[in-house]
Design brief:
The protein is an alpha+beta fold. 24% of the residues lie in helices and 29% in strands. The protein has eleven helices and 25 strands. Helix 10 links the parallel strand 17 and strand 18.
């Protein structure tokens, strides 16, 4: 009997070992789930820092990529770090097949070689997957010889072709020749284009499934000078936190008169962008006798088109994004999804600022995201300077009109966990003591308790969601915001509310504030009450000439503007 028990024990142990190895093998070879990994963003940020350090060592200078190649690593042993990296090359992160079918036993990494332009003996002027496209662009560049090289994955195939111009020291480099400055490895569908200035997007697949995308920073010498000046201007704006525009800079009307001095803010909220093309769900029709379920899919591209069209029609001076930009259940790489979601804004060269919603609650992850956002053109986000403030995205910018000697305060708060903290209200009081503004607007994601007013109240727009709010914010903060002189509170979160509610101060009935919803802007944002709810976005306009603050909305279906309303006007002297 004991012998049998021993054999059974050995068999059970053997089976458990087999199951463990099977589970380990499955975890290593199965497809990666759609879930963003903050460690990837951290490694990308560290890599950018390393490259910047290398750049500073290169005579503070014109950093360029003079060569790149692909190496193969066995990911079971390499732990995302290859051991066979040639000297003077840097390994980019992540691997090219990071989100591909990971039954592939090896990881393929892209290596780059950085040099200063003064020291380089060759420059790369383009990369393509098609040799003919490189040849058709220019058969010859005057004064320089060029060659087309292949970058091989293995002995049987090549993935890239790069055009290289060999430097000729007798002939100075032409200011108009593009030069490869940097490469970003992104992941997404065909709707992802890197819209940053001087970036070219190279899709390594034409498939609708998630695939590898390269973003190539190609700049000539003239463009580099322009970008450097633009970056310095943005840095000055962030440091001073003042957006100043002059009447003299405004275009003229046909009759020669100056156009009115206006500052326009576009609010976007609850965009819910994902790495794939859109969110799909099964729709059960109770009237369908055949019991056939239909699949309904949303479209992130539709959201991008809506934003782009609205920007073209409104030409905003600033875009404020009030949370839930990312759908974490449909995302795999923060860097890629941020570039995808900001495409129309980056393409139109518009200043923008972002505050978090419910999508991310980890403080360190939020810092990583803001750290990356702050590197993007025209982004006003910075890492928090005042660590005593609750949350991460708390900002205030002064908008000043030189011609009319008026100013506006645009304040952004982080309503993390559906909560505004005492430290943030104290921040508002400090701002109120420091600045005397004619107009004041405040933006955050989650509504205050007063967005559920009892009894009768004045309202403009649609007010569908009326369930109890789970806000933890002290109800007195509503009156504090009024006491600090704000004219309007603009929020998101509730997808099917787009109304503005006039709310009185509990302490002084003569004082009031407009509480305005943006509604859901993203096509992939869930609407439970009305599956066909029309997506919208909100606009605010400070008219310094007429002394008033206006608001209205745009809807996605017919792109029309509607619900124009007066938020505030400066009292006229008697």
């Amino acid at each position: 009997m004991n012998m049998i028990n021993k054999h059974y024990k050995k068999l059970i142990i053997f089976i458990l070992i087999c199951i463990s190895f099977s589970f380990l093998f499955h975890s290593l070879t199965s497809n990666k789930p759609l879930s963003p990994d903050s460690s990837l963003l951290k490694s990308q940020t560290s890599l950018s820092t390393k490259i910047s350090t290398t750049t500073n060592q290169l005579s503070n200078s014109n950093q360029i990529i003079t060569d790149f190649t692909i190496i193969k690593c066995n990911h079971l042993y390499s732990k995302n770090k290859c051991n066979n990296i040639p000297k003077s090359y840097i390994q980019l992160s992540p691997s090219l097949n990071y989100y591909h079918n990971s039954k592939i036993k090896n990881d393929y990494y892209l290596l780059i070689k950085l040099q200063s332009l003064d020291e380089a003996t060759k420059i790369i002027t383009d990369i393509s997957t098609n040799k003919k496209s490189l040849e058709s662009e220019s058969n010859e560049i005057e004064g320089f010889d060029y060659e087309i090289e292949e970058v091989q994955i293995d002995e049987n195939s090549s993935l890239f072709k790069k055009k290289i111009i060999i430097s000729n020291l007798k002939n100075p480099l032409n200011d108009n020749i593009p030069i490869l400055r940097s490469i970003d490895i992104l992941f997404g569908n065909n709707d992802l284009i890197d819209s940053r200035l001087y970036h070219k997007t190279l899709h390594l697949s034409s498939s609708d499934s998630i695939h590898t995308i390269l973003s190539l920073n190609m700049m000539n010498l003239k463009e580099q000078s322009i970008l450097k000046e633009s970056n310095q201007q943005l840095l000055n704006l962030k440091n001073e936190q003042i957006i100043e525009f002059s009447e003299e800079q405004q275009p003229e009307n046909d009759d020669g008169s100056k156009i009115r001095s206006k500052f326009k803010i576009m609010q976007l909220s609850d965009l819910h962008f994902g790495q794939d093309l859109g969110r799909c769900e099964t729709i059960i029709d109770p009237n369908d006798n055949d019991n056939i379920d239909n699949e309904k899919c949303t479209s992130d591209l539709k959201t991008l088109k809506f934003i782009e069209d609205s920007i073209n029609k409104e030409s905003p001076d600033l875009i404020v994004i009030t949370g839930d930009l990312i759908d974490v259940d449909r995302s795999i790489d923060y860097k890629s999804i941020l570039l995808k979601s900001l495409q129309p804004i980056l393409a139109k060269n518009i200043k923008f600022i972002y505050t978090f919603g419910d999508e991310i609650d980890n403080y360190d992850t939020k810092l990583l995201i803001i750290d990356f956002l702050s590197t993007l053109p025209n982004c006003l986000n910075t890492l928090p300077q005042d660590k005593s403030l609750y949350g991460v995205t708390n900002y205030n910018f002064q908008v000043r009109s030189k011609a009319f000697k008026q100013s506006a305060s645009i304040t952004i708060l982080d309503s993390q966990d559906h909560y505004l903290d005492e430290s943030q209200i104290n921040y508002l009081y400090r701002l109120n003591n420091e600045f005397q503004n004619d107009y004041k607007l405040i933006f955050f994601h989650y509504p205050l308790p007063q967005f559920r007013p009892p009894g009768k109240f004045k309202i403009i727009g649609t007010y569908n969601e009326k369930h109890a709010l789970d806000s933890k914010t002290n109800v007195k903060f509503h009156d504090d915001i009024i006491n600090c002189g704000y004219n309007v509170i603009a929020v998101g979160h509730e997808h099917e509310n787009d109304a503005c509610i006039l709310s009185e101060s509990s302490a002084n009935k003569d004082k009031s504030i407009w509480l305005c919803y943006n509604s859901v802007t993203g096509d992939s944002g869930v609407t439970k009450l009305n599956k066909g709810y029309i997506r919208k976005l909100r606009l605010f306009e400070i008219d310094f000439d007429d002394g008033r603050l206006l608001s209205w909305k745009r809807k996605e279906v017919d792109k029309s503007a509607f619900d124009y309303q007066l938020i505030y006007d400066i009292p006229k002297p008697q």
